[in-house]
Design goal:
heterodimer, A: mainly alpha, 11 helices, elongated, B: alpha+beta
Chain lengths: ~200, ~240
C-alpha cells in the first residue's frame, strides 16, 4: 500500500540541473496536454473498467499533471500524461484492478456494418470474432493486457510503454510477446496468427 | 526490437477491431479545457506559478521537497488508511453535515471564501481572537501539500465557527472549528453530493473538514494537522 502510494509521483525530468530551456511550458497546458485527453481516458477506461472511475481518474490526472507540468520536457506529452493516468488508476482505483484481475468489461459497441458491401452474415462473423478476441484479452493478466492495449490501441513504442508502465524495456518486450502467445493460443482458428503459435 | 517490425498484422487488426477506444466524455473535456485555460492564464500572469509550489528556490531543492512531501504523503496515507478503519459514517440525515456542505459551497462563491487572506499562520490565528470564543490551532501545512489560504468567520447551525481555508491542489478545504459537545463521535466521515466531509475532535474542539477533493485527501489532511499539532520529538 505504501509503495503504491509513493509511486504516484509523476515522471520527473531526468536531470534537472542540466536541463535545457524548452518551450513546452510556454505553449501552455491546453495545447500540450489536452490533445491526449481521450488517449488518457481510454487507458483509464481499460484500467479502471468503468466509465465513472475512468472520468474521475482522468480528472485527478489532469490536476496532478498541472502540478508537475513544469517538469515536462519535450514536445510529446502523451507518454508523460499516460504515465500519470496509469499511476492514478493503480493508486486510487486499484482495488478493482487487483481484485478482478480477469475481468475486462468493455461497452458493447453496436453491431456495425463496416462498409456498404458487407452483408449481415459477415457482420455477424465480425461480431463473433470481436467477442472471442475480447474474451481472450480479458483473460490476460493485467500487466500483459496493459502492455498489449498500449501497443495496439494507443500505438505506443516499446520505449513509451516502458516509461508508462515503469518497467524495463526487456520486460515490456517479454510481456508483449507473452501476451501475443497467449492470445494466439486462445484464438486458434479465430484469427489468422501467421507464425505466432 | 526486430519484433517491432514483425508485428502480426492479423492479430493487431483483430485487436484494434475488437477493443474500442474511447472519446473523453464531453463533461470531462469541458472541465479539462476550463481548468487548462485557467492554469495557463495563471501561469502566464504569475511567472509560471504552479499550484502549491510557491517558493521553489532552486530546482533541485524543489525536487527534493517533492520527494519528501510524497514520502510524507505516503506515510500519512498509510496512517490515514489505518485510522480509516475506526472512522464512523456520518449518517445521511446528519444536519450538521448538510449545513456545512451548504456553507462550504457558499464559501466558494466569489468573494466569500476568506476574511483574512494570508499563508502566514501568525496572521491568521490572531485574527480570530476577539471574533470567536475559541482559539483554533492554525497550522502551516504547505509542506504536506495543504497550503494555508486564510481564515473566515462563519455561522453554522446557530453557532459561530472559525473557518480555516487550506488549498489542496486546485481544491479548497474548509476546516470549521467550534467548541465540542461532550460525547461527540470521535472520527466520522461521509461523502455527500461529491463533497467529502471528515469530522474529528481533539480536547474541547470539534473539527469539520469539507472539500471537493478526494476523501483520502481529508484523511491525509487530518493526519498532517494532528501531526503538526503534536510534532514528534525527532523533528
Amino acid at each position: 500500500m505504501m509503495r503504491r502510494s509513493a509511486s504516484v509521483e509523476p515522471p520527473i525530468a531526468t536531470d534537472d540541473t542540466t536541463r535545457v530551456p524548452d518551450h513546452t511550458q510556454e505553449r501552455g497546458f491546453e495545447r500540450v496536454v489536452l490533445p491526449h485527453l481521450s488517449a488518457g481516458f481510454t487507458l483509464a477506461r481499460y484500467l479502471t473498467e468503468n466509465a465513472q472511475d475512468a472520468e474521475d481518474a482522468v480528472q485527478d490526472a489532469i490536476v496532478r499533471a498541472m502540478r508537475y507540468f513544469h517538469t515536462l520536457r519535450g514536445d510529446d506529452a502523451r507518454p508523460w500524461f499516460l504515465t500519470i493516468v496509469r499511476r492514478v488508476c493503480l493508486t486510487s482505483y486499484s482495488a478493482d484492478y487487483q481484485a478482478r484481475e480477469n475481468s475486462l468489461s468493455v461497452d458493447e459497441p453496436a453491431l456495425q456494418l463496416i462498409d456498404s458491401d458487407e452483408t449481415p452474415d459477415t457482420a455477424l462473423q465480425r461480431s463473433f470474432v470481436r467477442d472471442r478476441v475480447r474474451a481472450a484479452v480479458d483473460q490476460l493478466p493485467p500487466p500483459l493486457r496493459e502492455a498489449i492495449v498500449l501497443r495496439e490501441l494507443q500505438g505506443c513504442s516499446y520505449g513509451e510503454i516502458a516509461m508508462i508502465t515503469d518497467a524495463p524495456i526487456g520486460t515490456v518486450m517479454s510481456r508483449l510477446s507473452r501476451a501475443r502467445e497467449r492470445l494466439a493460443a486462445l484464438l486458434q482458428g479465430v484469427v489468422d496468427m501467421g507464425d505466432v503459435a | 526490437m526486430s519484433d517491432e517490425t514483425t508485428d502480426r498484422p492479423d492479430l493487431s487488426t483483430a485487436l484494434r477491431d475488437a477493443l474500442p477506444t474511447y472519446e473523453a466524455p464531453p463533461t470531462l473535456s469541458a472541465w479539462a479545457t476550463e481548468q487548462a485555460r485557467r492554469f495557463d492564464s495563471e501561469s502566464r500572469g504569475e511567472s509560471a506559478r504552479v499550484p502549491e509550489r510557491k517558493r521553489a528556490t532552486t530546482f533541485s531543492v524543489a525536487r527534493w521537497q517533492i520527494a519528501a512531501a510524497l514520502v510524507c504523503a505516503a506515510a500519512l496515507g498509510w496512517a490515514g488508511a489505518t485510522l480509516r478503519t475506526v472512522t464512523h459514517r456520518i449518517s445521511a440525515t446528519d444536519q450538521t453535515a448538510s449545513a456545512l456542505l451548504d456553507t462550504h459551497i457558499r464559501s466558494l462563491l466569489p468573494g466569500h471564501l476568506i476574511d483574512v487572506q494570508s499563508s502566514d499562520r501568525h496572521t491568521v490565528k490572531p485574527w480570530f481572537a476577539g471574533r470567536i470564543d475559541i482559539s483554533p490551532p492554525v497550522m502551516d501545512l504547505a509542506s504536506k501539500g495543504f497550503p494555508l489560504i486564510g481564515g473566515r468567520l462563519d455561522y453554522v447551525q446557530g453557532h459561530s465557527a472559525a473557518a480555516i481555508v487550506y488549498g489542496r491542489r486546485l481544491h479548497m478545504i474548509n476546516l470549521f472549528v467550534w467548541r465540542a459537545v461532550p460525547g461527540e463521535q470521535a472520527v466520522a466521515s461521509t461523502v455527500r453530493d461529491g463533497y467529502a466531509i471528515l469530522h474529528w475532535t481533539t480536547g474541547d474542539l470539534s473539527y469539520w473538514a469539507v472539500t471537493d477533493a478526494a476523501p483520502a485527501d481529508l484523511d491525509a489532511f487530518r493526519a498532517a494537522y494532528l501531526e503538526q499539532a503534536s510534532p514528534p520529538a525527532s523533528r
